[in-house]
Amino acid sequence: MPQVHQLTINIINRSSNPLPTYATEGSSGMDLRADIEEEIILQPLERRLVPTGLFIELPLGYEAQVRPRSGLAIKQGITCLNSPGTVDADYRGELKVVLVNFSSGPQTIKNGDRIAQMVIQRVEIARLIQVDEIGSTVRGEGGFGHTGKQ
Ligand SMILES: O=c1ccn([C@H]2C[C@H](O)[C@@H](COP(=O)(O)OP(=O)(O)OP(=O)(O)O)O2)c(=O)[nH]1
Ligand SMILES: [Mg+2]
């Protein structure tokens, strides 16, 4: 699968870990690594803001999504509490990951562990126009499971 990287993004790496990379040529996300001096032990249902040591300069019209890794979720019950985390184009602070432990036992995070993945996405910047009526549809106001389960 040929992949052309047309988009370049400036990033500062103050961690001792390598820059995030796409693990395979078809990967959507680049894994983010924990940049921590001491290991973190997350107790059941405990949440923690985990630093990455990364500072990104996203072009306007893009966002970065911080998403969970499925392996961590299924093996250790660890996920991103605010999934998907939204990194705004104008954010210049450190990229951090809001981890939570949904397992029944303590879970350990070590420096350099790949704790989440970052997906770069285009976003539309919309202008809202206030009106009194909006167009009708077949679905109408039905939602939240109104079409059933099967
Ligand atoms: O998983 C995340 C989510 C957010 N952020 C950073 C970048 C983002 O631009 C900023 C604000 O995130 P968000 O808008 O989700 O949080 P908020 O609670 O609305 O804070 P703010 O009032 O600063 O927008 O925090 C992260 O580093 N990781
Ligand atoms: Mg916000």
Automatic annotation (TrEMBL):
SUPFAM superfamilies: dUTPase-like. One of its GO terms (molecular function) is dUTP diphosphatase activity. Its cofactor is Mg(2+). It is an enzyme of class 3 (hydrolase). GO terms for biological process: dUMP biosynthetic process; dUTP catabolic process. NCBIfam families: dut, PRK00601.1. It comes from Segetibacter aerophilus. This is Deoxyuridine 5'-triphosphate nucleotidohydrolase. InterPro entries: dUTPase, dUTPase-like, dUTPase-like_sf, dUTPase_trimeric. This enzyme is involved in nucleotide metabolism: it produces dUMP, the immediate precursor of thymidine nucleotides and it decreases the intracellular concentration of dUTP so that uracil cannot be incorporated into DNA. The keyword Hydrolase applies. CDD domains: trimeric_dUTPase (cd07557).
